[in-house]
Amino acid sequence: MDNKVTIHQPNYIPWIGFFNKIKMSDTLIILDTVDYSKNSVHNRNKIRTPKSWMYLTIPIPKIYHRKPLYDVRIEDNKWMSKHWKSILTNYSNAEHFKKYKDFFENLYSMKHESLVELNEKIIHYICQELGLKPRIIKSSDIGVDQNLKKTEMLLNILRKVNATTYISGSGGKKYIDTDTFKNIKLEFQDFTHPVYKQCFEGFIPNMSIIDMLFNNGKESSKII
Predict the structure, then answer these.
(1) Per-residue b or e along 80-98, where b marks 16 or more CB atoms closer than 10 Å to that residue's CB
(2) Is the Cα torsion angle 45, 25, 181, 153 positive or negative in sign?
(3) What is the mean pLDDT of each run of 10 residues along the chain (224 residues)?
(4) 16-23 and 209-216 are packed helices; what angle lies between their axes, rounded to 10 degrees?
(5) Alpha-helical runs (H) found in the chain
(6) For residue 168, which of 182, 188, 183, 151 has the smallest C-alpha distance?
């Protein structure tokens, strides 16, 4: 039985390319055994504003920098009201905003302690809304050896979940040793960023997936 697997770090409100890779896959491995990186997509992403874009950033204490993602804790929840206010300010008039409003309003009213669990909750919800049904597994739940090098770690994970194909991002071409993939087919994502309807003048790419959802609703599943 085919099992196409993609492996991705748990990003906050991820961009479109993240879900394009999931669309190509049967299984998503949330790679939470690598280290947290300060001011990365682990804890921030972009949304549109009337004239440009802005970051929504979750503040993470310095003690968690370069700690495994599964250990990272959110100790200050004041950011939630700021994020929700920014989303309301910029998207309340978007055509499909009301469809997703309840989920995000509830999300930003709850206390969150684990960065990975928060991001995983968002990823699960967006997959559901896009009609994507991958099996989702955290690498911390399958006993991954964190001391392995990149390609060795990938193979270790893929073997544990009986992968037949590995779906890699295009950046994987720079570091993956293709000769080691003997019994697992290797495919690279060939993603061209789509131009889709946004609620402000002038298209800006590389926004969080919520920008597409709020403006395009169910059509988003076809666009990605």
Answers:
(1) beebbeebeebbeebebbe
(2) positive
(3) 95 98 98 94 98 97 95 94 98 98 98 97 98 97 87 93 94 82 91 97 98 98 96
(4) 80
(5) 16-23, 79-91, 97-107, 115-129, 150-160, 209-216, 220-223
(6) 188
Give 177's Cβ-side CA count (13 Å radius): 10
Distance of alpha carbon 190 from alpha carbon 172, whole angstroms:
12
Under DSSP, the state recorded for 194 is P
Residue of 135, 121, 141, 190 lying closest to 163 (CA atoms)? 135
Structure tokens at 133: 């049904």
Residue 205: partners with Cβ closer than 8 Å, 6 or more residues away: 193, 195
Instruction: Mention every residue, 6+ apart, whose C-beta is less than 8 A from residue 179.
Output: none
Q: What's the one-letter identity of residue 177?
A: D
Position 50 scores a pLDDT of 98
pLDDT for the residue numbered 87: 99
Structural domain boundaries in the chain? 4-141+173-223
Distances in whole angstroms, Cα of residue 4 to Cα of each of 72, 97, 124, 134, 221 = 29, 32, 18, 10, 19
Other Cβ atoms closer than 10 A to 46: 19
Residue 120 has a pLDDT of 98
Residue in the structure block whose two tokens are 């669309």: 23
